[in-house]
Amino acid sequence: MTRRSLMVILAHPDDESFPIGGTLATYADQGAVITLVTATSGQRGVPGLEPMRAAELRDGELRAAAAALGVAEVHLLGYTDGALDTAPPDEVRRRLRALLITHRPDAVITFGPDGISGHPDHLAIHRLTTEAFDAAALPDARLYYITPSEATHQGCGVASSADVVSSTIAAIDVGAHREAKVRAMQCHASQQPPFTGSPAEEAKKLACHEYFTLARPAVHADALACLFAPLPAVVPA
Predict the structure, then answer these.
(1) How far is CA 225 from each of CA 42, 49, 61, 142, 228, rounded to the nearest angstrom?
(2) Which domains does the chain have, with CATH numbers?
(3) d(Cα 123, Cα 30) in Å, to the nearest integer?
(4) Separation of alpha carbons 103 and 34, rounded Å
(5) Cα 182 to Cα 194: distance, rounded to the nearest angstrom
(6) Before 217, cis peptide (omega within 30)?
(7) Segment 60-95, tens digit of pLDDT
(8) Among the listed ranges 58-62, 211-215, 217-221, which one has the minimum average pLDDT value?
């Protein structure tokens, strides 16, 4: 069987753990090669700490969390936390496109148009990743957006959207990997993780599924139980 690859492109250190850590741990355990791309260093995310020191701290937290989840490779792009929407868009798109072409992932995950919390950095990385994915034109690759759910509510503290999603949804069963998710969340100590007790006990409180909306290719299918599940043929417009 061909070894699957997954690229996750997000805005801040901790974005990979709090909403979707269970999915990353699940696929890593199944042997998928996971590449994590984090656009900013989170240097404004530690109150009272000077930005350069905060960036160093959060870099270490990110790498520890990635190891806890089984991520194979981490790329930190180094843009300014809270100002990703002012970074040179052509440059960011070019760097993301280059990573996509180099790694040629089977699937890519990023934020959806809501950014879960509406954070400007989340909205920017959603837009830039989508544009870079389209420009890379990887045959058979899929693009998924993180879908608001109980898992994102628990991890990010933002209530799930009441909107009905009409697109194809992938519901990933992460029940067996919730403890790894808790451990990864706890690596981000500077971000005050919501589950601070024993990982084995805290894991029991977490939602058993994480959800993703299939953005590319534009096909409609029944709910998917796997990011790599077979899809119906794309009907030309």
Answers:
(1) 33, 42, 30, 15, 9
(2) 5-216 (3.40.50.10320)
(3) 30
(4) 10
(5) 9
(6) yes
(7) 999 999 999 999 999 999 999 999 999 999 999 999
(8) 217-221
